[in-house]
Amino acid sequence: MLAALRDPIHGIVLLGGRETDFVTWAANHGIDAEMPYLCRLGGEGAVQDRNAKFSLGDVVCHRLYPFRGVIFDVDPEFANSEEWWLSIPEAVRPIKEQPYYHLLAENEEATYEAYVSEQNLLTDESGVPCRHPLVDEYFESCDGQYVPRSHTAN
Fold first, then answer.
1. Does 115 lie in the same domain as 88?
2. How far is 142 from 111, CA to CA, in rounded Å?
3. What are phi and psi of 28, to 5 degrees?
4. Are 50 and 99 in contact (CB under 8 A)?
5. What pLDDT digit, counting tens, does each position of 44-80 carry?
6. CA distance 49 to 40
7. Regarding beta strands 121-123 and 2-7, do their DSSP bridges make them parallel or antiparallel, or are they unpaired?
8. How many domains does the chain have?
9. For residue 68, which of 78, 55, 58 has the smallest C-alpha distance?
10. Does one domain contain both 77 and 124?
11. How far is CA 118 from CA 11, 43, 71, 151, in A?
């Protein structure tokens, strides 16, 4: 199987040979081979084994901007409008071929919904509860974790 590194700045760097070749190369260059930039390609270049790093109910923060939130939905790859994607400054525009997360987000001034690429999220380890008013609608709080509510059809 051919291994590939998805680099948000330089695009895709393909490495021939086995996946273990990539893991060794990544380790020698200080890259965590388990980061979301690793994917495996097969056949006609179809992406396989794309797993989301975060789960529903995880509290995350943006790596560049001062906001945080609880994940309430995940898209396996970009699923917003082209206009929205192009509105992001090119210097920080993420790649589309990665998971994108819907957040019940908050900053110091407001609560809102945000759509954020996986490469721009970090685990929020503050332990501070999220104050977004919809958190209780989507989740139960249990020992500091947010557990998705099971909604039954009427």
1. yes
2. 22
3. -70, -15
4. yes
5. 333 444 589 999 999 999 999 999 999 999 999 999 9
6. 7
7. unpaired
8. 2
9. 58
10. yes
11. 16, 25, 11, 26
Of the two residues 135 and 12, the one the predictor is more confident about is 135
Give me the amino acid identity at 89.
P
Task: Indicate if the pLDDT at residue 149 is higher than 80.
Answer: yes
Are 72 and 140 members of one domain?
A: yes
**Tokens 């557990």, residue located:** 147
What tokens were used for 88? 């992001």
Domain holding 76, by residue range, is 59-148
> Are residues 23 and 80 both part of a single domain?
no
The DSSP secondary-structure symbol of 111 reads E
Answer whether residue 120 is part of any domain.
yes
* Cα–Cα distance measured from residue 154 to residue 148, given in angstroms and rounded to the nearest whole number: 18
On whether the CB atoms of residues 130 and 68 are closer than 8 A, the answer is yes
Question: Can you read off the two tokens belonging to residue 27?
Answer: 């380790």
User: What's the mean pLDDT in 6-33?
Assistant: 48
Q: Whole-model pTM above 0.85?
A: no
Q: How far apart are CA 70 and CA 60, in angstroms?
A: 6
Q: Contact, 56 vs 145, CB < 8 A?
A: no
The answer to whether residue 153 sits within a structural domain is: no
User: Which residue, chain included where needed, has tokens 């989301």?
Assistant: 52
